[in-house]
Amino acid sequence: MQANANYPKIVSWEDRHEPGEGLLYDNSHLSSIDSAPCRPESLDISKYAVVTIYALVFLLSLLGNSLVMLVILYSRVSRSVTDVYLLNLAMADLLFALTLPIWAASKVNGWIFGTPLCKLVSLLKEVNFYSGILLLACISVDRYLAIVHATRLLTLKRHLVKFVCLSTWALSLCLSLPILIFRKVIYPPFSSPICYEDMGNSTSKWRMVLRILPQTFGFFLPLLVMLFCYGFTLHEMIKSRMRQRHQAMWVIFVVILIFLLCWLPYHLVLLTDTLMRTHVIVDTCARRNHIDQALQATEILGFLHSCLNPVIYAFISQKFHHRLLKILATHGLISKELLPKNSKPSFVACS
Questions:
Q1: Range of the domain at 224
Q2: How large is the C-alpha radius of gyration of the chain?
């Protein structure tokens, strides 16, 4: 059966699109009659189950990150440097959460929202990830300087933190520019429309460049910075006799850990896919399908991260409880008698 001439060519293994967007392969290289085509196998999970997960993540993220931003913004006078980074982190998660209803709808009906919205929601997804790990790397450097080197130029750091946050957003946007430039609605034959990159000729070569560079500068390098800083910080905290001073640091450790648990599997699978595309790993049909299924599953795990940080604060940080209760009491929503006697404004501030 001949595809319509107006349609783009069938997406091959080298050019297949992101997980969850429908996978098509060009089997024209299988010239032998006895050769069986490598057909894609989707993850064995209902698309309506995925939509339900996205809806729950959207609601939890919307509520949780809004509360986190409210608590931090309310503590304007005594806001710490770490709080400012976490404010930007909550903002990134909130912006991404607003796109989840659109991603959920595309799971059911394909991409029916046009190219401009395709570019916008894809950009927000990428910026959310890169700004997240870069902000966490900034926090790790700040805590490393404060605890290991006892650097206490708080006034200077408060002045610079706005510049650092703006630079982080700018770098995240730069790393996400390929998505903004090349993403568009594509109408593959025998499939629903998809939101995917259209790079013209030499797609495989460009896709490798535009995947390896952001992965290197937007994930693995910040990860190395975090491992270095928190390795020395943890060592300093363990040998210190005044561990109580740094109790709030464990909130940050958990935030880092949850981020890695959610996003590291996806990027390890993506790295494996990159190695297969560059023929470092033998390319087989079974491995293609395994990687595709793993990408779909780990992408869902990555999306889940946008609602988890507020849960961490709610269950671990007493300072967050104190500040939230104070806000509720100030507006008459709860009795002031419920407020704790001694509570500091910053819910993750560390000495």
A1: 47-308
A2: 23
